[in-house]
Amino acid sequence: MAATTDYEHDPKGQELTAPYLKLYTVDSPNGRKISIFLELLKKDYTLPFEINYRFLDFSTGEHKQPWYLDINPNGKIPTISEVDSEGSRTVLFETGAILQYLAFKYDTEKKYHYGPTDGKNFVDQLQWLTYVIASLDSCQFNFVFFSMFAPEKNPAVIEYFIDTSKRVYSVLDSRLKTNHGWLVGDKLNIADIAAFCWVRSGPRFGIDLTAYPDLDAWVQRIEKIDVVAKALEIK
Ligand SMILES: N[C@@H](CCC(=O)N[C@@H](CS)C(=O)NCC(=O)O)C(=O)O
């Protein structure tokens, strides 16, 4: 297909040639969940699209501009815009939805996910992925906001979110212990990728990972995966 100008009316959009997948992102835990997974898929499969990373500038509020709110009304990253060779476009936001969409569509050999025919592992994946997005993400995001960005620092609120984060870390640590090293099944999968992106940044927010030995070992193991290490450098 011929080169097409940007479907999203992105003022900084380049001319892209379909098929492509454009990831609107920033260098943050939520953004990294998707870039790591895309790079893993790219290593293992011949993907039917080129990946285009578009880093938004939060300091100028690009993520709150009308053109971006048209594709992500919540005004957050990440969002994917996938255009196939016929020019048909799929837009998706929310990391849990994006990870499952990419997994079900492109991880055809189920290297990084469990499908509906995989019994308990599929059920566990639904549960742990949802837990990570609903509990880990929100308490850590709130902790970061209230301790670093809120105009007024309220110690009780900050303490609440650090305590809640630590409780979630304990839950994940116990799960890794009983499930022998992965949150789900016996391989790196989309629930583990989602959790990893927040947990590895715990020390930056004052959480000592050595207090959670299984979580600590799991972070180090995932960070050593070549593709993951390279994906973490995409900025
Ligand atoms: N539940 C969303 C959370 C996304 C999110 O919180 N993204 C942050 C960056 S890590 C963001 O865009 N923050 C900008 C803002 O809140 O204005 C998801 O899983 O995609």
UniProtKB/TrEMBL annotation:
Domain of life: Eukaryota
Stated family: Belongs to the GST superfamily.
Protein name as annotated: Glutathione S-transferase
Residue ranges constituting the GST N-terminal domain according to the UniProt record: 18-110
Organism of derivation: Wickerhamomyces pijperi (Yeast)
Domain GST C-terminal: 118-235
One Pfam family, short name: GST_C
